[in-house]
Automatic annotation (TrEMBL), chains A, B, C:
CDD domains: YjgF_YER057c_UK114_like_1. Residues 4-131 form the Endoribonuclease L-PSP/chorismate mutase-like domain. This is Enamine deaminase RidA (YjgF/YER057c/UK114 family). Signal peptide: none annotated. InterPro entries: Endoribo_LPSP/chorism_mut-like, RutC-like_sf. It comes from Chelatococcus asaccharovorans.
Length: 155, 155, 155
């Protein structure tokens, strides 16, 4: 079962990644490593899920938003690789939560992204990570995640 | 003198790393790189040293906590590698301090981890790093550090 | 046209990077990767541009400060490599903005660094990145950026 098959079995469709309107790019490949730019919980209308954990966004919302971010990261990987079977492993995530100073449950939020990676890539989707609280995030979005993946050459 | 010898000479015993109860893992190895998940100042009772620099935690406490984090990162590396002599170099730390907006002394806190790495690994322990202030951290802990190490294959 | 030529054409002179007075170093090389420690907007007098976006620093100031940080990162790369033509690509930036909780324009700030990298390195300067808001930064500086570059062996 390929990652694309698993996405279909989960009823998930890859979104179209936003095009950066600046001098950065959504990804860079170096040897067998794919570096993915940070992504946020982009909604079908092009806006972002906004809010702050511990204030006006629940852990459930944060978890769902982190899953949305994970799907966007996978969409960028698909653009980069053509074929998601080239993902040999998810190496490292930096999971960033927009949260109040006394918020303490960042891991429960970022699990939304981590869980999706394991659902789609199986054991290869298990990764090192940090799940931490930011002072603020672009567009006041709830969560942002950046990722490093190990990849195989094109078949 | 091996890193294990140096730990013994410093009177330090490696703690047992916590087992993640989720879809992430404490480390990932890719080629000659070891990526370590962020760790916090875990106490012998299983809890974490909590507080916020610039509010209710002193720089001395933060330094001690960062040293505790460093020892935990070394314990995870030992689990991953079997033999700490396989550490060829500490490449990069991201040192994250739970701090008030006007706190300015993050480097003095993260030095607790950086200093330990040099005590244990010698010159190979010197690393690139950033030492910065987070809006919040899991469990309200004082400090979290993630690391990338360069490693040799098993002997 | 070499990166050094482009710097000269832009009227830019590389600053002297600060020497870390601790157990970390400004950079580490592993294989074909150059890891650069986080740098801040150091001023000619040795101090830092301080302030908080959304409070007492404008986006224009933040952009200029991020450009100053970019020049310092390039100066460290020059120290590390001798010859900036050895930079094969800018792989990844973590752009960290000292900002109020409701600040939303982090990308506009970090573009100061990203734009400089493209001006100096051309297409090879385009990179993956995250541009996010910190709770605080060392010396209360406005912005800090760390970077990973892909490099070629010495000629
Ligand atoms: Ca790397």
């Amino acid at each position: 079962m390929t990652p694309e098959d698993r996405l279909a079995a989960l009823g998930l469709t890859l979104p179209t990644p936003p095009k950066p309107v600046a001098t950065y790019v959504p990804y860079r490949i170096v040897g067998d490593m794919l570096y993915l730019s940070g992504q946020g919980p982009r909604q079908p209308n092009g806006g972002y899920s906004v809010g702050r954990l511990g204030k006006d966004a629940t852990i459930e919302q944060g978890y769902a938003d982190a899953r949305t971010v994970g799907l966007l990261l996978i969409a960028v990987a698909k653009d980069a690789l053509g074929d998601l079977s080239r993902v040999k492993g998810v190496v490292k995530l930096l999971g960033m939560v927009n949260a109040e100073p006394d918020f303490a449950d960042h891991p429960k939020v970022i699990n939304g992204c981590s869980d999706l990676f394991v659902e789609v890539f199986g054991e290869a989707g298990r990764h090192a990570r940090s799940a931490v609280g930011m002072g603020s995030l672009p567009n006041r979005m709830t969560v942002e995640v950046e990722a490093i993946l190990q990849i195989a050459p094109p078949a």
